[in-house]
Amino acid sequence: MKTYLSFLLLLVFPFTIYSQETLSADELFLKARTAAFDQKDYATSISLAKQALEKAPNYTDISIFLGRVYTWNNDVASARTLFEELGKKEVQNEDYFLAYASLEYWNDQNTKAIEILDKGLGYHPQSESLLLLKAKVYYGSENYKEAESTINSLLAINPKNTEARALAARINDLTSKNAINIVYNYTHFDKQFDNDWHIVSLSYKRITPIGSIILRGNYANKFAENGTQIELEAYPKISKMFYLYVGGGYSNDVGIFPKYRTGVSLNANLPHSFEAELGYRQLYFSNNIWMYTASVGKYYKNFWFNLRTYITPDSKNISHSYTGTVRYYTKSAQDYFAFQIGTGISPEEYRNNLLENETYKLKTFKVGGEYNFSIKKTNLFSLSAMYFNQEFRPHERGNQFDITIGYTKKF
C-alpha cells in the first residue's frame, strides 16, 4: 500500500510543480492575496509572492504586498529590508509609503514613520490614507497639536471621512494644556414650580500625562434659595483603547444639590469608529440613589450618533431613562449642530435634584438642540435649548424650558 501511494505522489508532484511554473505573475499574485486575506496563511502567501516576483522582478505592487505580509507575519527585518530596497528605486507608489510607514508605526518608530509619510505626501498631498496615518502617529506619540493640524487638513479635503472625524473628536480635548469654562443655565416651569432656576458653573481643566482633570464650582438659585457645589472629575488613560471617567462632588446645600455624588465609567474607543461606555452614578440626598449607565456611539461621515440609558433599580421597580443624540459636524470637532430626544431624567442634568423626590418614576419627554462653534480654535461657544414635558404628579403634566449658554477659553 505504501509503495502504491509513493508511486501516485511521484506521478502527481511533477504536475503540481509544472502547474505552478505555468502560472503568470498576476495569477500567482492573486493566489498569494487569497492565501493572505482569506486563509491567513502568510507562509504560503509569501512563497507565492516570491514566485511571482521571480517572473516579474519589477512588479512593484507585488513587492509592496510582500512587505505587508512580512509585517503581518512579524518578520520586521525582512519587511524593512524590502521597503528600503524599494526606496532606493525611488518608488512613488502611494501604497508603498502607507505600507512602509505602517510597519514603522506599529513598531513604535514614530519619527521614521513621519519621515516616510512626509515623503509620500510630497508626491500625494491629497492622500487621505497618508494624512490619516500621519495624524495617528502624532496622536500615538502625544504630539496633539500636530495631530490636530494633520487631521484638520484631511477633513478640509474630505469632511465626510468617518475615521478622521472620530480621531478628531479624541484629539480635540488634548490640544491645549489648560481650559477655563463658564456655563449659565436658565430654567422656566409653567406649572411645577413658581420660581425660575438659575445655575452658573465655572470650571478649570488641566491636561496631564495620565489624562485630563477638571475642577468645577457650581452656584444655583432653585426654589428661590441659593446653593453651591464643588466637583472634581478625571479621565485617566488606561490604554490606546480604554480610559476611565472618575467623578465626585460635595454640597452643603442639600436639596439644591445632592450632598454627595460619585461616578465611575469605563470608556472604549472601538474599531470601525464606534465607542462605548459602561458605569455607575450615585447621588446622596437623605438616601443613596444608584444609577447604572451604558452608552454606545458611532461616527459616520459628518455625523455622530449616540444612545445612552440610565437604569435605576429600587425595591419596587426599575426606572429607565433613554436619550438619543445626533451631531452634525460642520468643520472641526468643536463645530457642530446637535439634536437630542429622550425620556426620563439623567443625573448629569441640572435637574438632578428632582431625583430625590422620585419623580424620575413618572413620565418625562424631552427634546432639544445645541450649536457649538469656535473662533480661532481657542475660543469655544455653545448655545442649547431643551423642552421637557414632565408628569410631576400622577396624571398631571407641566412644561419646562431650558436655555444654556457656555464659553470655553483654551490656552
UniProtKB/TrEMBL annotation:
Transmembrane segments: none
NCBIfam families: OMP_YaiO_dom
Protein name in UniProt: Beta-barrel assembly-enhancing protease
EC number(s) on file: 3.4.-.-
Domain YaiO beta-barrel: from-to ranges: 177-349
Biological process annotations from GO: proteolysis
Pfam families: TPR_19, YaiO
Signal peptide from the UniProt entry: none
Highest classification ranks of the organism: Bacteria, Pseudomonadati, Bacteroidota, Flavobacteriia, Flavobacteriales
One function term, GO molecular function aspect: peptidase activity
UniProt keyword annotations, A-Z: Hydrolase, Protease
Organism superkingdom: Bacteria
